[in-house]
What does this fold into?
Amino acid sequence: MSRPRVRGDLPIIKSQAELETMRHAGKIHARTVARLMEAIEPGVATAELDRIAEQVIREADAVPSFKGYRGYPATICSQVNDVVVHGIPSDDEVLHEGDIFGVDLGVTWGGYHADGAFTVGVGEIDEESRRLIEVTREALDRAIEQVRPGNTLRDIAAAVQSHVEVAGFSVVRALVGHGIGTQIHEPPQVPNFVNGERDEYALELAPGMTLAIEPMVNAGGCEVYWGDDGWTVRTSDGSRSAHFEHTVAVTEDGPWILTAR
Ligand code: MF3
Ligand code: CO
It folds into this structure.
């Protein structure tokens, strides 16, 4: 077979002009992240951080990608301690010294999305939490290093999984990364683990593909559950979880991180 087959559709190849539009969205994303970093401190409510993010995005003539997506009510996802992804920010949810806090957010500009996430400690954090954050960030870096024409999604998945498991942590399996462009979620799915015969693994990366790569890493077991709000995903064992994400384009020369600072 000359063309790798993927469940569902093949990834959508973007033109240089489309990549540049996505980079503009990514720069707005990076600016929003920088503003949030300054505002994250003990005592702040996550709904206040949500308002700050929305303001920065709208000042740039952009739109929060998540707000209204399948009914999601906010600009950011608020991921405190055992929340893996998709926590809904609230005025009642206040950050405390020693927490770890992840933010996931999407920016739409010119009809294209940029998606990215980061995790930080709130004030002083314990050593295991510090290591969890560092290992997850490194896992994303290792994955991005695999982004070049001819490599496959298996190379990305294996890079994340090996780095995380050697460190003694676990990779979440219930959620994966994704293609991105005019839609926040486009084909292909981008797993962070190699397990069985998912068709995606054989997919060869080609210039113009744009991927949101997003390792979700638990300090304990990989199992997660969905909360009663229909959104919030937590670790089943109550252990802490970290999440990093960049939107990355495949180019002839390697990765172009569209959400880079
Ligand atoms: N970055 C998230 C993801 O890829 C998107 C959040 S979906 C939302 O899954 F509904 F929470 F907005
Ligand atoms: Co994403």
